[in-house]
């Protein structure tokens, strides 16, 4: 990457709202053509940094450059080169998709003909097709997200910002958005800055992931690097009691690199899971009152990374061994 200017660079960005420090001294760089996943729980500061980078709000301190221009002093230049699909899109239910796309084209100074040919390209790329002639009020949540994505792309931006593009979507719509983001990246070489609270989304899509918690960038790397950094395998032990005693006993096993405790659950970072699981079982059998409820082995996930850097799980949906429930948040987060 030496010699190539980053598509996005943030240099010690701080953004305050009154006494709240929403973004706390974040520095990062995204290379042209990269998909950067900005991962963190609700309230972590993802939207705030995204808004700073898109010139929608100014930083309290620090500097950022996007597509070669400074977000504070050259905001107009930045705006022409970025596409933005925010968490709460402003779609007008009374208009059709085509009308909104035409409006967006005019906004960016494209001729009607240029907008039409651009929209034709986009409808190929973004699976929205026939629905464009219908009023937006009739769209499903997934269709609205895809229209919003198309709107962000009308002026062929170099850098695309997507703020939680799949929050509240059902698994099928989510997979479609993932496919489209990947296509934009591989076919058009577009740089993508994507925020998410879904670990599997960051894992699936991002070339590199930055983990943000309480405004602070707490870890950064490729998904593989991040997972490798916390140990090769994870053994999960859930107990009915004697957690502290079990922890002490397991800590004496030479192959156990680290133990994290979350309630009654212990997560053991080990270099070789399969050969460590029986010594763990034997050790636990000797701990009075430990009462093993679960003993399992898995590859580390980004949630393990999040837990190891913050001491918390990213959300309750991602408890160890638990399935990710994607159906639950629809009602509260779906756009009106
Ligand atoms: N306009 C605002 N006024 C006051 N506080 C805000 C505003 N926007 C965000 N915040 C606060 O900043 C923090 C980060 O918010 P946000 O960037 O929206 O997080 P995320 O997008 O990761 O959920 C939160 O504590 C939030 O309440
Ligand atoms: Mg947000």
From TrEMBL:
Membrane topology: Peripheral membrane protein
SMART domains: AAA
Protein's GO biological process: daunorubicin transport; doxorubicin transport; response to antibiotic
Positions of region (Disordered): 313-336
Single GO molecular function: ATP binding
Membrane spanning stretches: none
UniProt keyword terms in alphabetical order: Antibiotic resistance, ATP-binding, Cell membrane, Membrane, Nucleotide-binding, Translocase, Transport
Keyword Chaperone recorded: no
Location of this chain's protein in the cell: Cell membrane
Compositional bias ranges of the Basic and acidic residues kind: 326-336
ABC transporter domain location: 8-239
Keyword Cell membrane among record annotations: yes
Record GO cellular component, one term: plasma membrane
One Pfam family hit: ABC_tran
Recorded family membership: Belongs to the ABC transporter superfamily. Drug exporter-1 (DrugE1) (TC 3.A.1.105) family.
Protein name as it appears in the record: Daunorubicin ABC transporter ATP-binding protein
Species this protein is from: Arthrobacter pityocampae
């Amino acid at each position: 990457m030496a010699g190539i200017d980053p598509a996005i660079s943030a240099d010690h960005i701080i953004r305050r709202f009154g006494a709240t420090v929403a973004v706390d001294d974040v520095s990062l760089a995204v290379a042209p053509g990269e998909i950067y996943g900005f991962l963190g729980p609700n309230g972590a500061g993802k939207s705030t940094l995204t808004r700073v980078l898109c010139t929608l709000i100014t930083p309290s301190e620090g500097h950022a450059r996007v597509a070669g221009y400074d977000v504070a002093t050259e905001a107009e230049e930045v705006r022409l080169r970025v596409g933005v699909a925010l968490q709460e899109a402003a779609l007008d239910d009374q208009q059709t998709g085509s009308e909104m796309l035409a409006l967006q084209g005019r906004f960016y100074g494209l001729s009607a003909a240029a907008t039409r040919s651009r929209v034709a390209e986009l409808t190929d790329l973004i699976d929205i097709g026939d629905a464009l002639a219908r009023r937006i009020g009739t769209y499903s949540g997934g269709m609205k997200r895809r229209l919003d994505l198309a709107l962000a792309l009308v002026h062929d931006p170099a850098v695309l910002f997507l703020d939680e593009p799949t929050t509240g979507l059902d698994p099928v719509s989510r997979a479609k958005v993932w496919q489209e983001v990947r296509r934009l990246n591989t076919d058009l070489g577009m740089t993508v800055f994507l925020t998410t609270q879904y670990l599997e989304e960051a894992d699936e899509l991002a070339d590199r992931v930055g983990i943000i918690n309480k405004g602070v960038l707490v870890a950064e790397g490729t998904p593989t690097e991040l997972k490798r950094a916390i140990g090769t395998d994870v053994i999960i032990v859930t107990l009915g009691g004697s957690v502290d005693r079990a922890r002490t006993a397991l800590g004496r096993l030479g192959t156990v690199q680290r133990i994290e405790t979350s309630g009654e659950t212990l997560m053991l970072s080990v270099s070789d899971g399969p050969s460590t699981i029986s010594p763990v079982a034997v050790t636990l059998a000797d701990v009075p009152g430990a009462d093993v409820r679960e003993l399992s082995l898995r590859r580390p996930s980004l949630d393990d990374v999040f837990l190891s850097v913050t001491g918390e799980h990213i959300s309750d949906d991602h408890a160890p061994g638990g399935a990710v429930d994607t159906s639950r948040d629809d009602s509260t987060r779906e756009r009106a």
